Structure formats: C-alpha cells, structure tokens
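Section 3.1: Structural characterization of target chains.
Under the original work plan, the team committed to producing a structural model for every single-chain target entering the pipeline before any wet-lab resources were allocated. The record below documents one such target. The sequence was received from the expression subgroup and is listed exactly as submitted; it comprises 180 residues.
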Amino acid sequence: MTRAEVAAAGGANLATLVADADRGRAVMAMAEGARAVALRLRENGELDAIIAMGGGAGTSVGTAAMRALPLGIPKVMVSTLASGDVRGFVGVKDIAMFPAIVDISGLNRISRGVFARAAAAVCGMVEARVRRATTGRRSWRRCLATPPNASKRRAPSSNAKGSKFWSSTPWAREVRRWKA
C-alpha cells in the first residue's frame, strides 16, 4: 500500500499535503488514513496483528491505527518516544511499546536487534493461544495468553476484579465494554 493510498483513506490528497508543508495536518491525515486502513483490513479478515515504528509523527500515525482495533489484537509500536510518558499514544488499549534506543533512520547493530525482537514479539503474540474462560453466563477471552504446551494456569482471583480499584480503572472499563 502506498502513502498516497493511506492519505486517500484518510480523506486527503498526498500531493496537497506535500504542497501545503503543514506537518501537523499531514500527520493527522495519515493517522486517520492508517486508522481506516487497519479497520478495513480487520473487517476483511486480513489483519492478525499490527506493528509500526517511528519517531514522534510515526508514533502518532501507528498508534492511531492501533487504538482503533479491538482489545486482543496484538499491537506493537517501536518508538523513540517509548521511554517517556506514552499515555497519549496508548490510552486504554493493549499496545506494547518498545523503545527504539536509537533514531529510526536505517539499520545498525543496535536497531537491527530492536526491530528483530519487536517482530518476534508480535509473531509470538499472534501464535499464542488464548484460552476461553466463563464468568457467569458470559464467555470472554482471558487476559493471559497461554503459549502452546504450557501448564494450565489458574484464573485470576475474582476478588482482584471485584475490588473498588480494579472496577474504576480505564482498563477495567475497556474490558467491560469489550465483554458486552
């Protein structure tokens, strides 16, 4: 997929974005396009996971697409911003942030290892089996993935989820919305 197609999916024209030289507008348009493309791929059954890399702008574009996807779809972001406060990029979604350690401008001995490990992480997330657990009348995916051939793990204590702290967190609200 070309950058012109991503821009078009976001309702913008790439040539106009380039000519305007407004970085903020371009990042917003590409983020909307990436979001639309990710949702379309998911609806068509062509998306099992998503991985992106970038600095400030790339992180904004990549995580916009990731936040649009439902809980449980593996999402990995390799970012130069990952060592700081990433709440604005992650929100209450299950996005794994990998610090890029070095600037993302080609391959070197450090970046090659970071990128390889991020790719291996997203592949592992896709391959991990997720056991189904039942709670009352509803069935939902357990938050803990179980790798193949792993011993059976105990379900989390119901007291942890019934506590006042758990039920008031943004993560808990997202899980409740997801289970509904």
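The mean pLDDT is 80.
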